[in-house]
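User: My advisor, Dr. K., asked me to get a structural model of this assembly before our group meeting. I'm new to this, so sorry if the format is off. These are the inputs:
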Amino acid sequence: MAKTEPRTLAGFMELLPNEQILFEQMKQIIENTYKKFGFLPIDTPIVELSEVLLAKAGGETEKQIYRFEKGDTDLSLRFDLTVPLAKYVAKNYGNLSFPFRRYQIGKVYRGERMQKGRFREFYQCDIDIIGDEKLSLINDAELPSVIYTIFKEFGFDNFTIRINNRKLLNGLFSEIGQKDNATEILRIIDKIDKIGKEAVIEELKKMEISKDAIEKIISFIEIAGTSDEKLQKLEELQIQNDEFKLGLYELNEVVKYMRLFGIPEHNFNVDLTIARGLDYYTGTVYETFLNDYRELGSVCSGGRYENLAGYYTDKKLPGVGVSIGLTRLFYKLNELNLIKANKKSVSDVLIIPMCEDLSKPIELATKLRSEGINTEIYLNDKKLKAKFKYADKLEIPKVIIIGEDELKENKVKIKNMKTGEEELVDFDEKIHIKL
Amino acid sequence: MAKTEPRTLAGFMELLPNEQILFEQMKQIIENTYKKFGFLPIDTPIVELSEVLLAKAGGETEKQIYRFEKGDTDLSLRFDLTVPLAKYVAKNYGNLSFPFRRYQIGKVYRGERMQKGRFREFYQCDIDIIGDEKLSLINDAELPSVIYTIFKEFGFDNFTIRINNRKLLNGLFSEIGQKDNATEILRIIDKIDKIGKEAVIEELKKMEISKDAIEKIISFIEIAGTSDEKLQKLEELQIQNDEFKLGLYELNEVVKYMRLFGIPEHNFNVDLTIARGLDYYTGTVYETFLNDYRELGSVCSGGRYENLAGYYTDKKLPGVGVSIGLTRLFYKLNELNLIKANKKSVSDVLIIPMCEDLSKPIELATKLRSEGINTEIYLNDKKLKAKFKYADKLEIPKVIIIGEDELKENKVKIKNMKTGEEELVDFDEKIHIKL
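Assistant: The format is fine. Below is the predicted structure of the whole assembly, which you can bring to the meeting.
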């Protein structure tokens, strides 16, 4: 028979079991932490009506969409979890309690240009807190404490949650009469890490921004020091614009509460260069960096928005959210050898029967499982050596051998596969204690 | 601004948070049980090359596929988890240990004709055990014990795993010289529950099958009694066909081992009318019924196949697997009120601060979370009544109130929201013990 080559699309992650076990562990840490903070699960469809999903989209986003017709229905695969959340909250407004704290972990789709480490199908792990009309600023400080908890659980210590407030930038632009150019200026500022300060100044000059205004922009984004020093220097700029003053108040508050939430000083920092999405966020914005691996870019980002679902409803729904792009994070950490996929099995123990009658081995497997021990039983007719090879290859920590000799004495042999230690134990003893 | 109506596609399940919590609990029971039996996780893409995904498909299946082009690539959404498994095993053959025991829980897509309780996007929860060249029959008995464990965990007792062996039917057809008509005869037999015995006989007559042969078919599918009685009667048919004899041997063995795996007699039964897929299964086949709710149809089905991945590889990969269609199962159980979505929050406790300084409330929240207690803190500026209303609506079991009075005395007030009991506790006491 002619064979089809069994291949997987480029940009679609498909892991071997040992990597998948690790991926699931990371996903579980994220989900458990989200629950620990009381976020509720939702699970929206991957396929939605294009009209609904793209109500707001445009430009770059729309080009990347997986969009197609089925019958005469115009469908799209979701490209993030925020638009589905907006739809969900608008649709179910009357059935939700506000503030509505939800998490969603699921795959999203973007037909990006192929590049190593870029994925077209990837997991996003989102939390958002949505208020009805109003949402206290303290929520903006709670989300970083969720991020902090997760990255600590991942085993990282040297990471920084960078925080800024979009009102500062917007206020500054108003102050220097460049409000209409805000988007373009932000785009240029965003490149400072890549192209350097002088190149940024050159680009700003090309926009015919006055020398004075450029100086103000540069002195703003060059403010350095600790979080407190930066906040102090922002104060000293003496900018009278109302939006700027509100932004400064908000940033002060959020920093104060982040400390109350127990985030250590070395794990967060005010960073005035962070702008994030150009038209979406309206207040607090976050990015998270592993400091030893800056090349990863931000591993968890988000911010505050004034109105989640304006395209669907007249209700004013302010919110704040963050998202972890788990697929890319996993890929990068794995590539850098920062995580090790060294668990090749989920089993705690493999039972190897070397006897005709399988009653006892199966009975033991059932007993161990009922005690919460992940137990596999080797059911195929192979030589002892082959059975051990299976345990070896999967690195199952313990093996229980039950042969005719052991059966006669009503015993089992427990072997620790790491140390090689063997022990004969009575079948009726509490074998799980020995494991 | 003109609003887009926030709607979800028909046939795509989207649950409210309380229902979603319950759905996740059921999914977790399935996943934990799969792990307890040592099955390894895999996660294949939802989008695949049509050429790969449809290598084997045809007819009805192909019509239901969500298939589309992106650029000039012909793509499809997966319609089950078996074809992706076949691709995965063929592709990664050299990196897997056999028998390869894998689980996969994920969404699949079928553009079925819309009907109440039918879904176009739904979760399948699959386990399969794949052998390299060979796979012991005992595996066929282990899978029902996984199903048994899951449905017991769901809280059901009155369910039956029905089991049959396709070789019996195939052998019988050979014996009566109707091998070439097997598919058509199976299709007719499958309808016996719906159309009755006489109508089945009529249809068989139309196929010009001899009276004698029809009698043999009917006496075969009418064999009644306990599992052992049926096995005995099959023996007594004295059919000499080799395939039939092998099927009878296999069924006897699987029943014997199902008992060893501890499945009680009332939870399984030999059922000679079960055929399942017409060209896929080659040995053991299963269906599972909730006996009080036969109208649900089979809630977990599967069987043994001779060769998993013949379309992709020359390796012979026999396997056995079962699948739970969780979305449909959840929908039906919910509709029948057999499950109750009565958990509206994942939080164990809500902290309500009624004080200016939030240091203590936030400190307590962080402490409780670190002790594994899902803790939410009400961060928005509302009256006490509104804060309690939130706890009430979400039915959070305990509330901790921290007001100025409590703060002064370094105490907190714990309220049990079910009983209304209140208790003043020292802030530094082990509050989690009181929860």
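One thing worth pointing out at the meeting: The mean pLDDT of chain B is 93.

User: Perfect, thanks a lot.
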